[in-house]
Amino acid sequence: MIKVAVVDDQNLVLEGLCSLLALHPDLQVSAQRNHAEHIVTWLMANPVDVLVLDVRMPTVSGIDALREIRNAKLPVAVMLLSTFDEHELVLKSIRLGADGYLRKDISFTVLTDAIIALSQGQRWLQPAVTQTIACHASGPNNPPLYEFTQYETLSLSELEILRLVAAGFSNAEIAEALYKSAGTVRNQVSAILAKLMVRDRTRAVLRGIELGLI
Question: For residue 14, which of 1, 8, 64, 85 is within the disulfide window of CB 3.0 to 4.6 Å?
């Protein structure tokens, strides 16, 4: 069983999340609370595999709590949940060592899949694509952009970069957030384009949407 803790200042959301997660056969909600004060002490008394943490909370925010957790070097994967996609918050959370970042409008399946992935040492970043790209992708009058149905599988690192590209991050911002050199990110973006058989970043994002990668 994967032990999960949930922290959210809205009691209705907190109870709903815990009730839903408890339905999954591989997950055990072993701790919950509606604030992030003294988060390190609380987690030491309630060790878990994955912490699901609300970003915006009074007194101690999810970002502040994440910083405390990483400074204390607690062996827990942290998934941040946010009502909105906020460019700077996503970047800041990644820099501070968040293992995942999701919006609260995701499905239950996506949330549980993400928690399981985090428990296995993976990262799960799913910032929403920009409105312009999403509208372009779903527009009824748009002609097909791709002639291929096959593509070379992306690595976990490449998927992470593709999702950040979809959120509008530049190569420099991605490099800073993931602690990679700009050259490495540039090469990985080029590899993504080649694997998806597209010629630019926008088409890579559209292809990712079409294939369900984003």
Answer: 8
